[in-house]
């Protein structure tokens, strides 16, 4: 009567707090998700959550099923891993590069979790390498690259992890602090603080300023997100970062944020892997773990459809 898909749906509903976002998380339409839940309630003979509440409030029956989901689904996942290892797919090498300064917030717990379950796979993030990661992946010098800027390379597959919005962080005293969005032209009067990478790798340039031929008044770089936030908060400039990277600073009211343009600038983060490694059991599990961990620890991201 109760199926794994029901338990996964209920967890998604609890974690997201809304039917719309839960449907995106489990890759269903809102109508299909509502039908699935209504069918389950009819089978059980009682409601599982209260409609028209946000965040969703669960009944005692719903809370009981959530408890079951938290107990059963991790056991199923661990059994799947064990079986994959028994099938002989545990050996491997996972050397990766990250084209994303703010990715460590979700990548480190992903790697830790992965190492616990695949100890035979050699995991490393080589340092001090001075080559373009994606061509290095194609040459088998690397095994995975986290990127938001996919390049058309033979035998390289881009697995979408999640979508995110780039937001402009400004000081609380800035004239844009209460604005919903900023125009490209308005940034021509600003000092834009960025990570020390090529402008072509930054969404604020490649997808917002450059297409309109707009340039900021000045640019300066900072290595660390915390350093960028200190500069922004003290009125030394503005910076554009993924929404999840700003969550902590917005919650502390350290800075304010607005969208880039009226429609916002949304990007997709990918895990690039070689096609011949895509079906390896441990690689499949790493990608799945990366997605699950991202949605568990990051705010504001959406499934990559």
Automatic annotation (TrEMBL):
Q: State the UniProt keywords alphabetically.
A: Activator, Amino-acid biosynthesis, Cytoplasm, DNA-binding, Methionine biosynthesis, Repressor, Transcription, Transcription regulation
Identify the InterPro entries for this entry.
LysR_HTH_N, LysR_subst-bd, MetR_PBP2, WH-like_DNA-bd_sf, WH_DNA-bd_sf
Domain HTH lysR-type, residue spans: 2-59
| Cited Pfam families | HTH_1, LysR_substrate
SUPFAM superfamilies recorded: Periplasmic binding protein-like II, Winged helix' DNA-binding domain
Q: What are the subcellular locations of this protein?
A: Cytoplasm
**Classification via CDD domains:** PBP2_MetR
Which PANTHER family does its entry note?
A: HTH-TYPE TRANSCRIPTIONAL REGULATOR (PTHR30126), HTH-TYPE TRANSCRIPTIONAL REGULATOR METR (PTHR30126:SF25)
Family designation: Belongs to the LysR transcriptional regulatory family.
| Record protein name field | HTH-type transcriptional regulator MetR
């Amino acid at each position: 009567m109760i199926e794994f898909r029901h338990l996964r749906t209920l967890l998604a509903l609890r974690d997201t707090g809304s039917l719309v976002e839960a449907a995106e998380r489990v890759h269903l339409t809102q109508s299909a998700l509502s039908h699935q839940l209504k069918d389950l309630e009819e089978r059980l003979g009682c409601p599982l959550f209260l409609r028209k509440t946000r965040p969703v409030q669960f009944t005692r029956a719903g809370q009981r099923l959530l408890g079951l989901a938290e107990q059963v689904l991790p056991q199923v996942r661990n059994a799947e891993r064990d079986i994959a290892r028994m099938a002989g797919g545990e050996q491997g090498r996972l050397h990766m590069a990250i084209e994303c300064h703010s990715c460590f917030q979700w990548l480190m717990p992903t790697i830790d979790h992965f190492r616990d379950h695949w100890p035979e796979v050699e995991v490393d993030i080589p340092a001090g390498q001075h080559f373009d990661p994606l061509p290095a992946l194609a040459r088998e010098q690397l095994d995975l690259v986290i990127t938001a800027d996919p390049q058309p390379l033979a035998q390289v597959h881009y697995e979408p992890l999640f979508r995110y919005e780039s937001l402009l962080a400004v000081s609380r005293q800035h004239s844009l602090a209460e604005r919903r969005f900023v125009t490209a032209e308005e940034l021509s009067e600003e000092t834009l603080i960025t990570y020390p990478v090529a402008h072509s790798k930054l969404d604020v340039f490649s997808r917002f300023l450059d297409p309109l031929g707009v340039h900021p008044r000045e640019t300066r770089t900072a290595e660390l997100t915390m350093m960028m936030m200190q500069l922004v908060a003290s009125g030394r400039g503005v910076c554009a970062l993924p929404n999840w990277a700003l969550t902590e600073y917005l919650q502390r009211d350290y800075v304010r944020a607005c969208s880039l343009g009226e429609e916002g600038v949304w990007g997709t983060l990918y895990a690039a892997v070689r096609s011949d490694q895509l079906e390896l059991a441990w690689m499949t599990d790493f990608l799945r773990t990366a997605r699950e961990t991202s949605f568990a620890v990051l705010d504001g991201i959406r499934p990559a459809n």
